[in-house]
Design brief:
Helix content is about 40%, strand content about 15%. It contains 9 helices and 8 strands. The chain has helices spanning about 25-40, 60-75, 90-95, 115-125, 150-165, 185-190, 210-215, 225-235, 250-264, and strands spanning about 5-10, 45, 80-85, 100-105, 125-130, 170-175, 205, 240-245. Helix 1 packs across helix 2 and helix 3 (about 90-95) runs parallel beside helix 4 (about 115-125). The protein is globular. The chain starts with a strand and ends with a helix.
Length: about 260
């Protein structure tokens, strides 16, 4: 990527930590897609299943009922946008194969569904490889590492070998901020994010309004925009290619100023 881009978050779930329940009507969701596009998002990440620790388990059919109507309308209305689907289920990936310009954003690295990686390969989708210790249900129960920075490096190295053997080469790396990490782990990763550029693949930073920000600031996610922007700047300094965000306009402005400084 010549310049970093923004991935706008669109959760179609009632229980996501920041925007749960805001976009459960397709009309509201489409308006949100339009708003994020107009503010400069190049990718829209659609989620029908919340990954927070206390999230309710839902069926595949319910997940599809949430995302397919929006995908159908949004891909027709905005053919130049790239859409990412946040899922770990092969049945979902099979169903979205009829749409174009789709990225599969899998928080489990294929561990929850053994068919998923083969499914991604069969359809030729780009793939977000994210690191998570444990599962969404257990990930924040005393996460421990020998050295979180290099444990993730080893994870990426091993998984990339597996993915390439399956014919998947279009890969985005996500160290998984907040997924099986303490606050200290998260900041160690962010401080050393450039470490993962050794793989010469795009690096995604999903920092937006997370607890690693608002707990340090002793505030709430609703008041964590300034903190998010500060950490976005650090991520860009460390080579992030994609910022996954709730607040598109502010992230685009951050990238614009960052790029202006680089070329001054």
């Amino acid at each position: 990527m010549e310049s970093p881009v923004v991935m706008g978050i669109l959760n179609l779930t009632p229980d996501s930590f920041f925007d749960g329940g805001k976009y459960d009507k397709i009309e509201d969701a489409l308006l949100r897609v339009e708003q994020m596009k107009n503010e400069g998002a190049q990718i829209i990440d659609i989620g029908g299943f919340s990954s927070r620790p206390s999230a309710q388990m839902i069926s595949v059919s319910e997940e599809l009922d949430r995302i397919i109507p929006l995908l159908k309308e949004a891909t027709q209305t905005y053919p130049n946008l790239i859409f990412s689907v946040d899922t770990f289920r092969s049945e979902v990936v099979d169903t979205i194969a009829k749409f174009t310009a789709i990225i599969v954003n899998d928080i489990t690295a294929g561990k929850k569904d053994e068919k998923l990686i083969d499914c991604v390969s069969a359809h030729g989708f780009p793939y977000v490889l994210m690191h998570m210790q444990g599962s969404p249900e257990t990930m924040q129960v005393k996460p421990e590492y020998d050295d979180v920075r290099f444990d993730i490096l080893k994870f990426f190295s091993n998984k990339l070998t597996e993915l390439r053997k399956k014919g998947i080469d279009d890969i985005i790396l996500d160290p998984g901020f907040g997924f099986g990490k303490t606050i200290e782990h998260n900041y160690a990763i962010l401080k050393n994010l450039e470490l993962y550029s050794v793989f010469e693949l795009p690096i995604l930073a999903g920092l937006s309004r997370k607890s690693m920000i608002y707990k340090v600031l002793k505030t709430k996610s609703e008041d964590a925009l300034n903190g998010t922007t500060a950490l976005h700047w650090q991520a860009l300094m460390q080579g992030a290619s994609i910022l996954r965000v709730h607040d598109v306009k502010e992230a685009v402005q951050t990238i614009t100023l960052f790029e202006h400084i680089k070329t001054s």
